[in-house]
Amino acid sequence: MTTAPSPPPSSTTDEVVLQPRFWVPLGVLLLAGACLGLRPLWAGALWLALGTAVMGLFLLLQTALLRLRFAPEALLVARRDTVIRRFPYDAWMGWRVWWPALPVLFYFREEKSIHLLPMLFDATALREQLDLRLPPTTPAPRHSV
């Protein structure tokens, strides 16, 4: 069962911008380098390493350019100073940070769509802001028969 989102508390009227974190793209690039070690065992390792490196470079570029901003009424995705996407809190059905010990994915669901983002920003600040503005989702209890 998920809880319905509540309006943001009055103490969250300030806009908060999450700082970028480069761990995920650097980890993907490191994985690309490790794929090169498979070359003696598998001829396709070079292509795997190349594809992984391109993905890592793409994530690195996105980390440098994109910012998540928590405004009083919505989560804003901005490229530099230009807002490119707006997610109003009242349309959210739930959210979750996957693998809290090593956060690499951020999931949230709106009434009409599902979003899965790589963790390109400070996960601790993300959780703090989401806890302030939206209640966390709780999975429905499973009933045994």
Automatic annotation (TrEMBL):
Which InterPro entries does the record match to this protein?
DUF3119
Coiled coil feature spans: none
Give a yes or no for keyword Transmembrane in this entry: yes
The alphabetical list of record keywords is:
Membrane, Transmembrane, Transmembrane helix
Give the stretches traversing the membrane. 20-38, 45-71
This protein's source sits in the domain of life called Bacteria
**Name used for this protein in its record:** DUF3119 family protein
